[in-house]
Structure formats: C-alpha cells, structure tokens
Write a structure and sequence with these properties.
Split barrel-like, eight-stranded antiparallel beta sheet, single chain, 12 strands, 231 residues, 7 helices, globular, Pnp Oxidase, Chain A, alpha+beta, 36% strand, 27% helix
Length: 231
C-alpha cells in the first residue's frame, strides 16, 4: 500500500485535528484550534465552524490552512503515525449537501446546525506530509492521493449503507468481535468510502479499513477483508 493511501486512511480514522490558520488579529501569526473534520469522498476535508470563531475570521482573511491529526493509541507520540494536510479553505456554496452525511458522523452537531452562523467549509488539499512511524517520513504525491471515483462513491454511499445495514450487519458484528474482540451488538454503518467503512456501536465509533481500496462502488458486493480500530 502506498503512503498516499496510508495518509488518507489515517485522516479518515480520526474525527478531530489541530487546525492552523493565519491570524488576522495577530498579523499572520499561526493560530491553532481543535476542530472536528470529515473526509469527503474526494479526499478533501469538510469542517463545520461558527462565523464568530477566530479561525473562521482567519480563513476569510487568508484561506491557507493546515490540519494535523495523529494516532493517539500510545503515549509515545514520536513513535505514532501522523499526517499534516495543507490546503485552501473555502465556504461551501451549497450548505445543504453536507448536512445528512455530517450528522451521521457527528450527531452532536445537530444543535449547531439549528443555530445561525454555523457554516460548512471545504479544505482542498495542496500538500500532505505523512509520518507513518520511525523512518517512514514522506511528502505524499498528490496525484496518488486523489480519488478518481470520488463522485461515484458520493452518489452511491447512501444506498450502499442502507443495503449493508439491512443485509450484512450481522457479518460486520461477527468480524469485529472475531478479529478484534470488540462487542458491537448494535453496530451500524454510518459511512462508506473507497478505503473502508465507519461504524457506530453505542458510544464507540469504529473504522473498518478494506485491505485494498475499492475502485468502483458498483463492484461492492460481499464484504471485503477488513481491519478494525476504534476512532
């Protein structure tokens, strides 16, 4: 598996990152904040932020941003995988296109969406730095990170999720328990993309990666081999 796919999977495996913007108030000094994010089907990041927030004012001042997230499974942080995505943040012109998918991943955001001033932005990546561990340090080739069939996955995701939850939920629960010892009696899929599935069980969110990325959503039939970890 190439480092571009590994970087993309690491981004998908987390829900929060440290967002750095260029401060309008502080004349361009970097300003950091913790921000939930969702990886879209094309590999860009979608964030929901308040127009009162400092980072939103900064983005409107200068759209250049970066976001870093990391594997938090060990206190030895320098030994863990991490990825930094640099890109340009732009307000989405059609705010409604992201609502249903975002709420599947962040149901707690429903109250924010009921308030005025919360806005979806997309971060289009221009460079990615991936550290997979000691000695595994790469600038990702962006042509390898790009997802050719991202739009097709976006169109098919809802139907695929409905079908999996209706017909393959028991298989997913068995695999999670068999291979990873995690009880997930009420597990249901909330997201599907070329790299894997996101599953909610109670208050846990699990990421199940396919051993190889899917190239076409229409080829999805029986569940491919999975690896699983808690987000």
């Amino acid at each position: 598996m190439n480092n571009a796919v590994e970087a993309r999977r690491l981004l998908r495996a987390h829900r929060y990152g440290a967002l750095s913007t260029l401060s309008k108030k502080l004349s361009g000094y970097p300003f950091g904040s913790i921000t939930p994010y969702m990886v879209d089907h094309d590999g860009s990041l979608v964030i929901l932020i308040s127009d009162l927030a400092e980072h939103t004012k900064n983005i409107e001042y200068d759209p250049r941003v970066s976001l870093i997230t990391h594997n938090q499974s060990s206190p030895e942080i320098q030994m863990q995988g991490r990825v930094t995505l640099a890109g340009n943040a732009q307000r989405l012109t059609d705010q409604q296109t992201q609502v249903a998918r975002y709420l599947r991943h962040f149901p707690e955001a429903e109250i924010n969406l009921s308030l005025p001033g919360f806005i979806f932005y997309r971060i289009e990546p221009v460079a990615i730095r991936y550290i997979g561990g000691v000695g595994r340090i790469h600038w990702v080739r962006m042509e390898n990170y790009a997802i050719a069939r991202g739009a097709a996955f976006a169109r098919q995701e809802d139907a695929l999720i409905e079908n999996i939850n209706a017909h393959q939920a028991d298989q997913i629960r068995r695999q999670i328990l068999q291979y990873h010892g995690i009880e997930a009696p009420d597990a249901c899929v909330i997201g599907l993309d070329c790299d894997g599935m996101t599953v909610r069980s109670g208050d846990k969110i699990l990421r199940l990666d396919f051993t190889e990325p899917l190239t076409d959503p229409l080829t999805f039939g029986q569940l491919p081999a999975l690896s699983c970890h808690t987000i």
